[in-house]
Amino acid sequence: MKNLKLYKMLKAECKSQIAKAELTLDLLLNNPAGIGDHSTDDFYKNANEALTMLTDGKDRLETLEDWWKGQTNN
Question: Which residues are CB-neighbours of 43 under 8 A, at least 6 positions away?
Fold first, then answer.
């Protein structure tokens, strides 16, 4: 039997990363005053980091789901 608990844990971690990135991007887009005394460079850096986190989370989730399908089809 495949380790379903491990799969679920990894999937939850990916979804959490996606949610955190989306929340950060929403904050940056809709509440730019929330960054306070940060410079424009900080704003751009935070936006790029959030986008990277979003991309990474989605890529990891897609990879995990593709791999899991292959495992369960054997």
Answer: 28, 32, 35
